[in-house]
Amino acid sequence: MPELDAPNIRQLELFKEMDGTHFDALMRASYVQNFPPQLELISEGDPSDFLHVVVSGCVELFSSWNGRESTLAVIRPVSTFILAASIRNGPYLMSARTLEKSRIILIPSQDVQAVFDKDPKFARAIVEELAQVCRNATKHTKDLKLRTALERLANYLLTQQKQAGNGSNFSIPIEKRHLASLLGMTPENLSRALKKLRAYGVLVDGQIIAISKQEELERLAKPNRLIDDASL
Amino acid sequence: MPELDAPNIRQLELFKEMDGTHFDALMRASYVQNFPPQLELISEGDPSDFLHVVVSGCVELFSSWNGRESTLAVIRPVSTFILAASIRNGPYLMSARTLEKSRIILIPSQDVQAVFDKDPKFARAIVEELAQVCRNATKHTKDLKLRTALERLANYLLTQQKQAGNGSNFSIPIEKRHLASLLGMTPENLSRALKKLRAYGVLVDGQIIAISKQEELERLAKPNRLIDDASL
DNA sequence: CATTAAATTTGATCTAGATCAAGATTTTTG
DNA sequence: CAAAAATCTTGATCTAGATCAAATTTAATG
Q1: CA geometry: angle at B26 spanning B24 and B29, to 5°?
Q2: pLDDT tens-place string over residues A139-176
Q3: What is the spatial distance, in angstroms and rounded to an integer, between the CA atom of A187 and the C1' atom of C23?
Q4: Phi, psi of B155, rounded to the nearest 5 degrees
Q5: Which of B124, B131, B226 is facing A84, going by the closest CB pair?
Q6: Which residues, other chains included, contact A26 with Cβ-Cβ below 8 Å and sequence gap of 6+?
Q7: What is d(CA A73, CA B207) in angstroms, rounded to the nearest whole number?
Q8: How far apart are CA B113 and CA B187, in angstroms?
């Protein structure tokens, strides 16, 4: 793989503490590729051969059943996806497609596993990362089962606001139809929900959101760290 | 801890391959307790001090927000829970209560982590278990987002049937109100959904289920390994 | 075993959210 | 930049599932 990318990857929690030799070996075994938008990278059911790292761009994880489809997550740089599948050597449970032009590193699962056994620091990092993924999945489920669509949206906006630095203006980083699917609602319903939030001081212009009545929105959303804090 | 339990625990995937000395050390550091039914073992938000292993009985994992509550999983012997929290030393994301009189082993998180660093076999087992938990969470989300309540119920019944040995008769192992919550519906709606399934050859008598038209039910349920197979 | 309490079922009604059908915008592309 | 294709929005309608209230069954308790 090109040396340009390695330093970026090395900064990732997953690779930061590991032995340099092992890191280099992993990188040598890996492939880097640039993908155009809307390309299906993996399909659910396929065997999991690689751990993926999004270096730039954006990847949507989604799943289909009986003609229906749902977005399960949107991955932004720099982070990994399908770690669980590649550890268990099980089939992918989700499909993945690029939403934008994306640069992605593919690390062969068998190399990940080999280094896992040799490098305790890496093993530690893998298990921490995986526990995080696991906990975020739990939070997503709680969000879905305990909240209405309007509440999910309100909390999503507050979370995005926080990530963008707590200013009153920020922009949502994905298309609304994907956001709708992520939040478990239809695009039509998202559109209406955004309109309802005007009463709580939310102004929408395309992807740009302005929050004018912070307290009102928070009173509606009732954000909770055990659901909304991705770092927890 | 009493030696009676150790052999059972040792059989768990999580502990099977690890070094005997390490296993014994873990067991010595652990506590075994018998809990009555309906006892809240842990509350979400609390710091995670122990990895829990259900030896006998049954534990419900649930979560609350804004006065609502939802069952997220039901844990039966012999398996662990809140592995992810104890690895990250983060607060519990779910609460846990016994549904029946239960025998539970509490292994201090710090001991789990210490042995993780020393014993590659154990590290390997932990990461596999965690990946499994992670994948099951993904399946649960897919079930919730891609299926209607009736479809979730139909698939739940087929899964239980399989676990019970594929006979046409079997019994559901939890109260219906918990099942309803697990499937993301109200008890009233579960009751009605079960009635609707009569048209597909499902007969209900208390906890006992009889499936008379296997193919019809499967045509409705459209079971899918990437959602319904817990071992995958 | 009678009493009380809890769980389940049933019926009536309500509502969040889906679906369908057009428009209105925005984005993409020749 | 104009045409075509998406995406987003709005309105009308429909429906899965929730809520409320009451009856019935089942389980727990003195």
Answers
A1: 110
A2: 999 999 999 999 999 999 999 999 999 999 999 999 99
A3: 16
A4: -70, -35
A5: B131
A6: A15, A107, A111, A112, A115
A7: 37
A8: 41
pLDDT the model gives residue A2: 60
Q: In the structure encoding, which two tokens stand for residue A212, read together? A: 């004018």
Q: What is the tens place of the pLDDT at every residue in B83-136?
A: 999 999 999 999 999 999 999 999 999 999 999 999 999 999 999 999 999 999
Nearest to B127 among A94, A127, A140 (CB): A127
Q: Is the CB of B191 under 7 A from strand C?
A: yes
Map out the domains of chain A as residue ranges: 3-144, 148-228
Q: Which CATH architecture has domain B148-228?
A: Orthogonal Bundle (1.10)
Q: Is domain A3-144 annotated with CATH 1.10.540.10?
A: no
Longest dimension (CA), chain B: 57
A6 Cβ contact list (under 8 Å, min separation 6)? A23, A27
Q: What is the pLDDT of residues A36-85, one digit of tens each?
A: 999 999 999 999 999 999 999 999 999 999 999 999 999 998 889 999 99
Interface subset of B 1-40, CB within 8 angstroms of A:
none
Edge-to-edge order in the sheet of strand B79-81: B31-35, B102-108, B50-56, B79-81
Contact flag B226-A91 (C-beta cutoff 8 Å): yes
| Chain A residues within 8 A of B120 when measuring between CB atoms | 117, 120, 123
Residues in contact with strand D, defined as Cβ under 7 Å from any of its atoms: A 175-177, 187-188, 190-192, 194-195, 204; B 148-150, 184-186, 188-189, 193, 206
Q: With a 7 Å cutoff on the CB, does B24 touch strand C?
A: no
Query: Do the beta carbons of residue A28 and residue A20 sit within 8 Å?
Result: no
